[in-house]
């Protein structure tokens, strides 16, 4: 039996589908319910639509969430285009971004260095390939930032500017401890100088910069102690 409430609801569903110029198959493909569920909804037959069917109708018919349920109860649906002209369908919902920083283990860094070395060699062997040298140069810059961040952390947790110099660090990452004469980006320059400071090569820094770097290292040590108390003894702050 078709009730007046169900008939009214079916009219809203049918009119909206026709307004959007969609077939029932296209409604299903857009995230809507099955053809059979749509037919029951539009004709007002069978049991009342389930919550899942109502939710799917909202999605496929581009109604604001809750519109189908509200219409079934005697209210009116809210088309997404009526919401201040903003498309708020799930497919265009703003992406929730993750953290701005993620931990990167040494094994992953080593994996990155392998292809980087290969591309660098290819670039040197084939200068005739358009754009290859530029791409290799940009990749080298990014890889240097990644490995530089690792070395910075390594030096922070191993005594900082007052810690012992490790020949292995200089052997493996010596190029990251050199004077950054070719670096122009202010942030990269700051990181390169801070890294040299951590390795005991901050003699050329002015007093204000040395003080800033020293405080930064102290804060880094405190953070390490908070995250991993067992390692706090590896990086004592020497004030």
TrEMBL record:
Region (Disordered): 24-50, 68-100
GO MF entries: DNA binding
Annotated protein name in UniProt: DNA-binding protein
Organism phylogeny: Bacteria, Bacillati, Actinomycetota, Actinomycetes, Mycobacteriales
């Amino acid at each position: 039996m078709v009730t007046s409430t169900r008939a009214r609801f079916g009219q809203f569903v049918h009119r909206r589908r026709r307004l959007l110029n969609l077939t029932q198959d296209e409604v299903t493909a857009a995230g809507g319910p099955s053809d059979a569920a749509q037919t029951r909804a539009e004709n007002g037959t069978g049991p009342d639509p389930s919550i899942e069917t109502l939710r799917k109708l909202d999605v496929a018919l581009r109604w604001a969430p809750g519109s189908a349920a509200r219409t079934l109860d005697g209210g009116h649906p809210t088309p997404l285009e009526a919401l201040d002209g903003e498309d708020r369908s799930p497919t265009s919902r703003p992406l929730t971004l993750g953290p701005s920083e993620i931990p990167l283990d040494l094994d992953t860094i080593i994996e990155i260095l392998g292809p980087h070395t290969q591309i660098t060699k290819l670039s040197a062997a084939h200068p005739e390939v358009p754009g290859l040298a530029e791409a290799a140069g940009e990749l080298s810059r990014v890889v240097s930032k990644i490995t530089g961040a690792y070395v910075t952390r390594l030096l922070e947790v191993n005594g900082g500017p007052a810690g012992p110099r490790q020949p292995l660090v200089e052997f493996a990452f010596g190029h990251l401890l050199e004077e950054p004469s070719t670096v122009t980006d202010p942030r990269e320059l700051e990181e390169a100088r801070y890294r040299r400071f951590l390795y005991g090569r901050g003699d050329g820094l002015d007093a204000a910069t040395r003080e800033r770097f020293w405080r930064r290292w102290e804060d880094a040590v405190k953070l390490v102690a908070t995250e991993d108390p067992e390692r706090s003894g590896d990086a004592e702050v020497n004030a």
